[in-house]
Amino acid sequence: MITINELQVENLKKIKAVKLEPSASGLTVIGGKNGQGKTSVLDAIAWALGGEKFRPTNPKRDGSLTPPNLHVVLSNGIIVERKGANGSLKVIDPTGKKSGQRLLDEFISKLALNLPAFLHASEAEKSKALLQIIGVGDKLMEMDRKEEQLYNQRKEVGRIADRKKKAAEEMPFYPNMPTEPVSVSDLLKEQQDILARNGENERKRINVREMQGRFMRAESNYKAAMEALKAAEDTLRKARADAEVAAKSAQDLQDESTTELEENLRNVEVMNGKIRANAAKEGAELEANNLQQEYEGLTEQIESVRSDRADLLKEADLPLPGLSVKDGHLLYKGEPWDGMSGAEQLKVAVAIIRKLNPECGFVLMDKLEQMDTDTLREFGKWLEEEGLQVIATRVSTGDECSIIIEDGMVKDDESAVKPQASKFVKGVF
What we know:
Blueprint: E1 4-10, E2 17-20, E3 26-32, H1 38-50, E4 69-74, E5 79-83, E6 88-92, E7 98-99, H2 101-105, H3 110-113, H4 115-119, H5 123-134, H6 137-170, H7 184-224, H8 229-250, H9 259-315, E8 323-326, E9 329-332, E10 335-336, H10 342-356, E11 362-365, H11 373-386, E12 389-395, E13 403-406, E14 409-410, H12 414-417
Parallel strand pairs: 3-12, 3-13, 11-12
Antiparallel strand pairs: 1-2, 1-4, 4-5, 5-6, 6-7, 8-9, 9-10, 13-14
Helix pairs in contact: 6-9, 7-8, 7-9
GO molecular function, one term: ATP hydrolysis activity
Keywords: Coiled coil
InterPro entries: P-loop_NTPase, Rad50/SbcC_AAA
């Protein structure tokens, strides 16, 4: 990774003359009171390495007779200079060959020079940056799309299931009813069959009366015609036998009642209405149960997609343990961006910026007073462990500051105060 070995700057914004040799890794804090030139040091680095896009609107220090002069030495041996009224760029590589801004752009991260651009980016832009790093953006977006689709589908199924269930509960139900509607034609046929059987019974009764009449006539003829006794006896015997058979077959006959069928015919529509109501309730309950099962199935699918997303992020090469993306939001230790502390936001930003351009080993950071001294020490320790260089400003004159800027110069820096000093001469690099 490429870091900054040395910075010399004159007459830029509030700076008169400053020389800085930041720590190779960890935190270099530029301290001082407001308006003394701390941020101007960061502006000098950004303009020197980032190009015209980072040129201050009014770069020349008020009251200065000479234009700004910038001199930056990088850890790969490249020397970057900007000087003159137009801030002309000169880039010299270790072999002495001259090059330009294109060479710097190959390894200098624009976000490293402009951390607020990342800090103030939208949630979607931060997430996109992280997904670009870990190379699973397309897969994760597809999983998020699928989860959203399943969630919306499940939500609609659940809504319909609740509605169906409530409707089924409000439907009337009649116990002890047949499951199928009663047929009027079947009832009429049954009634006709009973009437036919009753008609047959009546025919048999008429037959009994006829047989009894025949017997009586035969008996009368017998008494009146003794002379034809032999012939009459045969007739009498046969008539008696027939009468006995007919009487015997009819003596236990009972007519069936059609009262119940007539009542059913009168109530058949009411009964069928109840049967249909029962069937509708059972159908609604069945549909509600089926929708509930579909809802549970969609829930299992959603959990599966979430598990796949977690596995995908678990296997990804994340720039910082605890980082993840969910529903287009960047998360750190389960907290969204606005739920992180200021220190955590800076840590996440530095880790992502470093990963976006691994060759660039430094980050500029303004207004570090949001960290207390303990957090500052922890942040610096983490930077050293990661081999990262952060050059930051802080409104403070305490011991945590690497240098103090006062009235555009490094406080108590004899080389910066006296232009004739061999280490640093104003306007001469």
